[in-house]
Structures
1.
Amino acid sequence: MLKRTNEQWISDLRASGELHEVAIKDLRDIVVSGLPAALSGWISPNSPQFEGLAEEVAQETILKVLSHLDTFEGRSQFTTWVYKIAVRMALTELRRSRWKDVSLESLVETEEGPASPQLMADSSVDPEVQTMQSDMIVRIQMMMKEELSERQMMAMKLIAIHRMPMEEAARRLGSERNALYKLMHDARLRLKHRLAREGLDLGEIFAVFESR
Amino acid sequence: MDMPPAMAKQMLNAVQQTEEVEYSCDDVYRLMDEYVELVRRGEDTSKLMPLVEHHLKMCGDCREEVEALLRMMDSDPQR
């Protein structure tokens, strides 16, 4: 494959005829050949789904690259920029696929009913420490209830408790990942300010949870 | 909300690391290609791109994408 400079990539992709066709083919090849390494730990290249996914990601990446060519600022190698687009496409698909059988309702149902702080405390530790941990958890839960909106609470449940990816949680909540990050940032800030107002030192709180 | 101590610690840890101003996922995505090239060159990204570095501590999705991107670059024979 021809090694191109950034300028050559842009010029070839903007050209017509064979130059354009060859550049598109090379673009597809570099995406498809890089995906096994990029997605290692996510999906095996031997998996029956891999080939279809790689082809779909390559096609979508090419379309996005062509439609966003004007936005490439040349602050990295052109192929790094292309890889970034391909990785986002691939992981978005894989996250959606991993979570497709988990309904929001099933996650919310498991949260129904008031949780007992005694049950939540670490049962392997000294009963006195357990009580301290339970009291602290009740206090934290109270702060969360008072400081956070229902949407922030829901996002925190999905992301922090159920380990749902931000992108998938955003999709489920009818939002976008960027907006959800900002919502979570606001939630964390509110809690940080509240802890400061109450004079609660995080080091002391951590010490409570680390006590045995 | 069920909150075992480990979860409470994890959440408080995130609260502790929260900054007044943070980059969003879109901010980081715009810089991600530049960031990974700095990482591969062994540059001190905590000094050069501290807000990106901080966001990656807070956001699992972006962190996963940076890791995948680095693996993809490492596998590129033209680099």
2.
Amino acid sequence: MKKHDGGIPGLIQKAADAVVDPIVDQALEILLAYMKHKIDTDKEYAKLVAGFNGVVVVRTGIKGERIAASAIFADGKMCVDKEEAKPWDVRVTFADHHALLKFAKSGGGDVLDLALENSAQVQGNYNYFYRFGFLARELLRQSALSQFWSLIS
Amino acid sequence: MNEYLRLFPDFPRQPIAGSVESRRNAYFRAMPEICIERAYLVTKYHREHGLLGQDKISVLDKAKTYHYVQANRTPIVWHTTARERTSDGKSQPFELEDKWVDESPLAGSTTSKFKGVPLFPEFLASTIWPELYSISERAANPLYLETTKTHRAWLNDAEIHGLTGAEIPALTDPEILDLTDAEILDRLVFSHWMKDSIMERARLIHEPPNANLSSPLFEKMLYFVFFTTTKTECISHTIPSFQRVIDEGVKAVIVEANQKAKAAADAGKVDQAEFYQAIAIALDGILVYADRLAKRAREMAQAEVPATDRRRNLLEIAERYERVPRGPAKTFRDGVTALWVCWTSLHQENQNAAMSLGRLDQLLGPLLQHDLQAATATGGEQATKTALNDARDLLCHLWLKIGDHVPMMPEAGEQLYGGTGSNQAITIGGVNFNPTTSKTEDAVNEVTYLIIDSIEMMRLRDPNLNARVHLAKNDAGYLRRLGLANLRTGATPAIHNDEAIIPALIDNGLAAAHAHDYGIVGCIEPVSAGRHFGHTGSVLINLPAVLEWTLYNGRHRHTGLTDKDPIIGAQTGDPRDFATFDEFYRAFEGQIGKMIEDVVTLNNWLGLTHQAYTPTPTLSALFEGPLNKGLDVTKGGAVYNSSGVAIIGLADAADSLAAIQQVVYTDKTVDMDGLLQAMNRKFAGKKDKQLVALLKQEDRRYGRQDSPGTQLAARIAQKLAAAFGAQRNYRGGPYRVGYFSMTSHVAFGLLTGVMPNGRSAGQPFASGITPVSDTPAGLTGTLLAVASLPATALTNGVALNISFDATGNQQANLDRFEAYVKGYFQGGGAKKQKTASGGVEIQFNMMGREALCDALQHPKPELLVRVSGYTAYFKDLTPKMQKEIIARTEYGFAAGQVIPLTPSQQKVVEAGDQK
């Protein structure tokens, strides 16, 4: 979590966090919803999931409170489940929302970095996660989402 | 008298010039480019022949796959373009014309690119999937990947050459015509291997999703802090045999394989018959590729103006490639050609991860002798000189060709292992065993010196030169020449002690003749060349993690110490309850046992998976043993079978144990609880500075003769060798232990907190078998301390990294170099101990700290450094690795005194990452 200095700057930071933290909490939802939207509306992007059948579970809270969402890919479509779908092919658990945001901002490429920091734990088939990471990065590359993330970081 | 030394007594004999110079310049200018050919062709063959999703893939199907690759990959005689990075972080192509012209006498290439990155989707290639559109421009060691529609050379090849039959489907493949390389990888390669990569196959077989395992081994490995198992990426790390190819030619081996296939079939031995058929098919693939290169060279020659050198060279290549490796090599050039074509072929099957070339001076020496005799007979001394010059130039070309590929590395991998090459070791010198007299004989010959000279001239990362030295048998001038090469290159060759290694290998079960014929794999690992599948880089173990498990009763700070956190190690008891150091050490040994159990289990699972899915017909065809046994190398076909373990962090672990022994149990300055509390607060408490000073006390540490730390290091090494030696791998062979760290001492260190030796959190461990850098014992004491470790416990090799300030008089420095190496190899007083045998290996950095600090500010593309095992370009290393090399203890040549870091150097070492 962010460290707050004392005094006026600290208060300003607290105020800013009060606005930003809920968005950070919803980073996962935003990412998956936008990915689904892109698949539904952009034929070129949809080609990336052609033939991709699999369930990717992303959740936060390795030790404590958890939020989870599942990206379910089937027959060139994607649907989002706000719970942990089972059985999954790969399950990624981030230590907290900020680790998740770091992942979302990088578009999936930094999950190994997070694993090095023990901020993320990947279970299951890594190849599904690499593919999901590719989809997320492409999403950022083709959209203004990365600018959005940078605004809330 | 060595003809080369007689005719060329002074070095440099000749500056780099002509096509060697132009190709070398282009080599340094070019950035690596990802080549999708192999990945695409292998995937296509697997898809079209229903090999994916099966319970196993037969060796015959694999042989057909590689034959298909050889028949369809681009036959490149000379490259015409390469790619370079531009100052804005992007890249652009450049033509290999005029001054960059590529007119190597060695046609063929590992990939379709001038400096290519081959991909192996059956292993870990999909790790770059998220990066397909960013890998070309990433900050650390970018790999260019074509993301625009591109000309596909191998499509045109079909049209131009009218290829037929099995070659056509890939070549006229409409599915890839409108796709970029990135799209092909995404849609037509990676997506097909999602459930078929080796790691996933092994996981599904041995740790199925519903297995309800308390601590799955694959997950444990992926914490990165305990151990790494390289079988997820390859089955390489060995030395093939080229002797039969040189002596008899590939065709002769095919004939034998076909005969054996028929005999096996007649005897109803279906598996063996299939294996021999696979050998024949894989070898035929090599010939198909050689023939395609010859054909292409003839076509290019026809397009040239008659009577030009270029046309003559092309026709000579065509004629040579039609002759070898099909038939026996008759000349030095034939031999190098046969070797090179087989080398590229092996890399279509086996990932470019430490496949090594063996004792090239012994392999090529007789061919050079033949050439020299012929030259002397026809043209006298001048012709002999010309033949030697030509041979040296050809070796320069071979080194450039061997460096034509770079390993694939994902972005996160760059943080841990950035800067590594393909670690292709070559071995020279030492002794041979004469079976008639049962005596050892000096093996140094003309080619030995040609290789030293050519390596010194080229100063490339690959190949990694390893020189064997037998002080009693090799000429004294040889060791001095090795010292000179180190002074001039700054970092190569590494030097190995025959008198320690050969007896240790014999003790390890090798026949005397085979132990004498050892070669080096990858970094510094000795195996009997061409007959010993040692897979020397199987497992990398973080030894301080074992200590961590001991301190925290099976938990690790990286994965958490609370009751909710997983118990990763064994539960050997709360160390606060241990009354004596012996109890603590027994718990440490118990944790060693747990680590061994884990890594052996995982390595064997992966090995069994390789047996089922990635048998290696090409490697098996070029190895001693498989043709006799009728067994693939992965199944134990080699004459000798073992698996190699690299232990990381020996010095830090030994120093920590020595500190615990004295401070906690002998002096009782602090109890275990106090020590753990101080560690938990990262030694940041008010009185911790004093405690750290006690923990770091110098005369106790490893690296001083007979110190508690040195004795503990020897005790740990013997324990590990015995415990691993008692294990059996999936091929029925033992595990062997070595101490080389590559960049892993930085990677594992990065993930490890403060330690009982006073080491700070996140700092690199000491490299290889080298003592911790701030243990200023003086060079002689350090060498003798390391030499006191028993070679029989170090049979997977060691890397002792020594840095010198090489300023001053060169001759005087060489005198001292000789003295230090001799003292280390002879072991001084240490050799009197029953178990000691003298130092095993030593390697150097001689460019000096100042040059390294300067290179941080002003990157020098060609600055070669010794990491810990292999050599690398300093600019390619991670900032942490760069600083670790700068921070290593530096010695003066004259007295072996420790040269402390200057304040400005200290500042550089302690500064934030600057890359």
